Amino acid sequence: MDHFNRKNGVLHAEDVSIPAIAAEVGTPVYVYSTATLERHASALKNALAGLPSVHLAFAIKANPNLAVLGVLARQGYGADVVSGGELKRALAAGMPAEDVVFSGVGKTRAELQLGLDEGIGQFNLELEEEGEVLADLAHAQGKTAPAVLRVNPDVDAGTHAKISTGKAENKFGVAIDRALEIFDRLAKRPGLNLRGVAIHIGSQLTELSPLEAAYKRVGELVAQLRAAGHTITHVDLGGGLGVPYHAGQTVSTAEEFGAMVARVTQGWNVTLMFEPGRFICGNAGVLVTEVIWVKPAAGNPYVIVDAAMNDLARPALYDAYHEFEAVEPTGEKFVANIAGPVCETGDTFAMGREIDVVKSGDLAVFRTAGAYGATMASTYNSRALVPEVLVSGDRFAVVADRIQPETIMGAERVPEWVR
Ligand code: LLP
What we know:
The chain is of the alpha/beta class. Helices cover about 30% and strands about 25% of the residues. The protein binds ligand LLP.
């Protein structure tokens, strides 16, 4: 459910018309709905409210905009971060350091130190050596770092290969059958409070069965660790809940997820931690674009829009599907290809799709672009960095400026021997 609806035939974000935003900010532009963010944040929170102890950490890689993080901080969400930059963002958005979880397979020593300096709530360790380094850093400074060990449960998440993370051959976590011996060694180290385990098997999971299978393995591991004398107080179940990208697509709901978690984790007696990203912000954003040309071609015509793969990379990277709809549709449909201006055939959003009839100058949106949209944008082809707008009721604000090529060039230097 989202708050992008048509009023008098014109697409609105809450009570603001998309053409009004486009007129003021230009296109392409990401538009987010505060009410939708809040709705999803509270749906998940409510679905997990019956569990004894829960910590929600928004995976800020999905949408790190400071205003978006501010909305979620007000909902009581902490952050799951994977870099020093994301850690700085979480803090800048007002998320308390103790609510920050630091994930990531390649945290540098400087990033581990930053986490210690800021006093973050938890480090999710990806390998034994990382635990040794963190323990040594913390111990040398008279600190004890709260940490859990990420395990790889070897479960097929049934999602796109590029966003699957829980198969044995993936780079993430330690093999679940080696977790006990690593725990035995790391838990002894001064400087480390190794208090639990973490998993994250992949993203855009539309069914719960792979998550359930992975959680059960974690439950067995927790029992095994306790039997070996370890104190386990925290289990981080990661993110991964999918969203509908196709109109009418059904995916597991927050309630179904909450019920499954309650059933599987019954009796674990731990604080359960979650790292949702896409579920919170996916449907809370659209990418607004203007049609430049409708170009005749050998097959279907090409609708050339002013958004491109540098603004929304998901179709080019994962063959991802995003609904395309006219902001003021006429009711007529035609079959077309949709592409951006970037000089690559990969800069194609759809081939042979039945869409609203559009013409040069019309506005349109790509839906479900609030997660892994602007955050993955680049300036390829020396295009401006796409701006972001946040709507709330009848108000809107530019929450990220369009960064122009002149600004990017301003950070480049031509050495004297080239001039
Ligand atoms: N926790 C960890 C450790 C993760 O690696 C991720 C996502 C999440 C949580 C949040 O997952 P979510 O709830 O959003 O599924 N760029 C890709 C998605 C990459 C996901 C990476 N990890 C896409 O556009 O589909």
